[in-house]
Amino acid sequence: MEPELTGTNLVRVTFRPDGKAVEVERGETLLSAAQAAGIPLVSICGGEGICGRCRVIVRGGKVEAAPTLHLSREEIKKGYVLACQARVLSDVEVEVPPESREGAAAAVDRDARGFLAPEAEARDTFAREPLVRKLYLELPPPTLEDNTGDQERLFREVRRRAEAPILQAGLKVLRGLPPLLRGAGWRVTVTLAQRGGTVELLQAEPGDRAREAYGVAVDVGTSTVVTHLMDLRTGKTLGAEARYNSQRAFGEEVTRRIIAAEREGLEKLQGAVVEDINGLIALLIEQAEVKLQDVLAVMCAGNTAMTHFLLGLPPGTLRKSPYVAAALAPPPVRAAEVGIRINPRGLLYVVPGIGGWVGGDVTAGLLATGLFRATEPFLFIDIGTNGEVVLGDGDWMVAASASAGPAFEGAGVTCGMRAARGAIHRVEFASGGVRYWTVGDEPPRGLCGSGIIDTVAGLFRAGYIDRSGRLDPDRPGVVEWHGELAFRLVPEGEGAREVVVTQRDIENVLRAKAAIYAAVSILLREMGLEPERIKQIYIAGAFGSHIDPENAVALGLVPDLPGAEITFVGNTSLAGAKLCLLSKDAFAEAERLARRVTYYDLINCPYYYEEFMAAKFLPHTDLSRFPTVVKTLRLGEPV
Amino acid sequence: MEPELTGTNLVRVTFRPDGKAVEVERGETLLSAAQAAGIPLVSICGGEGICGRCRVIVRGGKVEAAPTLHLSREEIKKGYVLACQARVLSDVEVEVPPESREGAAAAVDRDARGFLAPEAEARDTFAREPLVRKLYLELPPPTLEDNTGDQERLFREVRRRAEAPILQAGLKVLRGLPPLLRGAGWRVTVTLAQRGGTVELLQAEPGDRAREAYGVAVDVGTSTVVTHLMDLRTGKTLGAEARYNSQRAFGEEVTRRIIAAEREGLEKLQGAVVEDINGLIALLIEQAEVKLQDVLAVMCAGNTAMTHFLLGLPPGTLRKSPYVAAALAPPPVRAAEVGIRINPRGLLYVVPGIGGWVGGDVTAGLLATGLFRATEPFLFIDIGTNGEVVLGDGDWMVAASASAGPAFEGAGVTCGMRAARGAIHRVEFASGGVRYWTVGDEPPRGLCGSGIIDTVAGLFRAGYIDRSGRLDPDRPGVVEWHGELAFRLVPEGEGAREVVVTQRDIENVLRAKAAIYAAVSILLREMGLEPERIKQIYIAGAFGSHIDPENAVALGLVPDLPGAEITFVGNTSLAGAKLCLLSKDAFAEAERLARRVTYYDLINCPYYYEEFMAAKFLPHTDLSRFPTVVKTLRLGEPV
């Protein structure tokens, strides 16, 4: 028995190097303690001991740790434990190593800046008139002949300059008008925001402040939150910041988070992502030297569950048939109403979603790629924790969601990571060996999505794995690793962490690609569309880099259609959100678009499982579907 | 020197029979003490010792009272003082007699129920579709084939039943939808509110609650606040309540209250009228057995300063040239935002005003009388603390405001009162003597507006006063009263209070009628309209009764136009507010109407003073303008 304070069962956990301490119940996990202390520990599996990411070092005191394969004997000797598997028995002191820490100052996501060619094109389609904008006005002072009210004088001038048939201002603004207008000599800058079919006069400021108008576009991903700071006047991107979604502490998968919201309270999940966004905005404005009061709007795109968490809408009905959202197209709200810190009267917009499992991120993608006005058959695949597939033929569009898991986002695989500095984003298997490239040319820390696709496709094309994904133990680099086979891409001691791809990782990747391919296949069959008619395949997602189309097809992630052009379009969720922020026409198009797309639920499909299982082979059980791959790799021929 | 507590200068004032006590600084007035204690003392002049209404009896302790003519020697002996003129020197005990107390349970205002003939006519003009209404919906439950969001399902059904191109709901409503819809078996009642050009879904309730939809129409008068409870579904009036506007403690005149707001804080004036309205609503719903949550909207009409106080808009610019409002057409706001207690999401609407000194009460009047669609020349006179005059010819309308003072509202004259029980509302001078009628046939307590007009006109027509308004001391009933001449209408000891009209009261009435007549005269001259072309004269106001047109003309309050029909239309501010509440078309018409009327500021007029002075005679200095009166009374002939 430990000595115990009379009448209390509380123990103290101190985190190094932060120096933050917190009191928790004896028996709590270190992960809970870290959450309570506000220490941003990486946790991908939601505290189930599966991901092995929440490694911390116990420097003093006593904990009880469950056995795990994620730690080597040497590490255990050094005091390493998985925070989620270690229960506190006494006052303890714990060190959080850098790799286990979700950095507040996340590295800029390269991916979020790239691949904007289609966005640029779509941008030309829409008039640049931001949803929220400033207008400098010089009003004629009132006289006895022209003595209408201050509000009416202001509105009259606004209407001379802008289209605003329905114009409204809140009481707080009206109360401030008389002193403001007179103090400013009738020269003021108003902020106008589109709300539904109406325009709200959000604020009035003295003098000419029309140049100071900023907005933030946010891709609220299940794994990653990516933000761009936009100059609403010039349309320029002033900065980009990204970080993992802190909700991952509640579970990697959407469903798990919905259950967590039901059990622990929706406000916890809301608070987590809101604080992520607040932190990113704080970074963005500091770097760009922009004042918080001049950030007037936030435009978010995300899957339906993410926008529910963000707005505090109950997500429970999303996880049960018939998978219904509380709201697919929520109204713009005061950002402050959900806790987002920008101008106190600034607005939060959400790109409208298509269905319970096909969200506004897909609407944004169809907008950013210009596919909303496609005239030929196309396929759009957005690869995230869920993979969404949209098939269209120019007249109709139908969308489905496949539960891919986060493998392609750099999570759920042993050495996966987000496309931040040190991530291996490209891998080539050449005759002379394996080459890789990292983000920022820094020492390798792990694999991001494009690196994982390159590695698994490369292993297959180079014959390291067979069509079922099994590693050949006799190949160079294939090693025994914690009781299973693994391909060691980077050995330890190169001044970098060891980077491996395990047998289990490969199975994860195959399951992910099979789920996506099955969705594509089912939509094609259900809509009776000849695959050969497809001219364009757009692949969106936060991979970290362009993907070699040959690798994507060899993996069986993308159908093998020699007549179709495959284009990697990057993070179109973010690109679409930016378009909406910069153009009210684009946002109006997004609203129409979300209603135009038909949602097809794969759960409905009697042959889904069959399609999924058949797609788990490399590239596919049915080789006739992958003629190019068969020809290139000479599959089916006797070796 | 008085004995004094060390270190403090506070004294205690206890009010009987309430038993409420309050500590105030030595030297404070009893009126201030009463305000601090929440004792509703009548005070018309705002604490200047002029109205003589705040009579209280000092039962113990020491006060220093300024001399006043409002109290007889007997009263002073009994301990009577004017609360505003009495300064507290020690702990005191004070009795508040019933006549000095603003009853919380004010008697129903007869006037507010009457004179609705033009309103009924105007009501037929507009479709009865209230600004806020309930709709019972039976939704098809979601299926895999029809699994749109809860919001979208609800909106789809609303749009099948109602015109709502732009439909919005707040986050709070959306957050409650999923459990509500499922718990109610998809049978719900929604509340829809018109806000600008959009419809807000204010709330959703389980089951069919469409019958429980109520609204309150309010005439926010400078002197009196009148409320009607409306059944929004049937259009019926369920109850009427009125009371003096508590802001009178800050001054009788609008300008004085604006100064008080600047000195003491706008929130005090706002709080006063908001609590009046809350008290009246509480009474109305108790009597009608209506739940507060089912009161969904409040529609207020009042002059521009009154709506500024109500909404907390700074009124300061109204009192200085060029007399500009903060907002003439304020947007609908959540009633709770200004402290009005109805359904927490219920809305407060304000009938839009015309100019800084011609408010929404006049817009409401032009609406309720149907004059907004007049095709012939007309004159509309709304007599309140300010008298507003609108002249129109079918094509144009021009409005002006005359500072009449509250004489016709039963205030500012010695025995004046609101048209509550016991008010003398009709007076006839016949050969056999003077007859009078009281509200509720109760013992006379004072004179309301129509009684005052009847009395002064009667005195003139019967020869008790000459053309300058001087009382003839030799006539029966004309007595010496506190140092001036007065006509005693009701002697003391008839089981009732003495009711007199003093020489000074008559002068007040003549000033009031002169201000209004001058405005009429100036508008006619400025617009170049031949008076003979006028076919209709509408007179609105809270007089307490119909007024004899002959008396109104004999007084010179209304022009002497034999070809014009004079109609008394009662409280059209309230009638118009009711119309707006019951018909969104009527409210939309009020918005257009307010913009159509041109505001003419009398301050602009170089011959205003001349016109005013000429109109102070009975009926007017220029007898040629009053041919009928001259003929009937044989004026100008040698006696």
Structural account:
The structure is a homodimer. With about 650 residues, the first copy, chain A, is α/β, with parallel strands linked by helices. Chain A folds into five domains: about 10-100, Roll (Ubiquitin-like (UB roll)), CATH 3.10.20.30; about 110-125 and about 215-355, Domain of unknown function (DUF4445) (Nucleotidyltransferase, domain 5), CATH 3.30.420; about 130-205, Roll (Ubiquitin-like (UB roll)); about 360-405 and about 535-635, no CATH class; about 405-510, no CATH class. Helices cover about 30% and strands about 25% of the residues of chain A. In chain A, helix 10 crosses helix 14. Chain A is globular, with a radius of gyration of 26 Å. In chain A, about 55% of the residues are buried.
Runs of chain A in which pLDDT lies below 50 for 5 or more consecutive residues are 1-7, 103-119
Output the radius of gyration of chain A.
Answer: 26 Å
Provide the structure class of chain A.
alpha/beta
Strand order, main sheet of chain A: write it out.
14-13-12-15-17-16
- E-strand count of chain A: 29
Oligomer: homodimer
Distance between the termini of chain A: 65 Å
Globally, the shape of chain A reads globular
User: What's the CATH superfamily of the largest domain in chain A, by name?
Assistant: Domain of unknown function (DUF4445)
Main beta sheet of chain A: 6 strands, mixed
Helix fraction bin of chain A: 25-40%
CATH topology call of the largest domain in chain A:
Nucleotidyltransferase, domain 5
- Number of separate structural domains of chain A: 5
Binned strand content of chain A: 25-35%
Can you give the mean pLDDT of chain A? 89
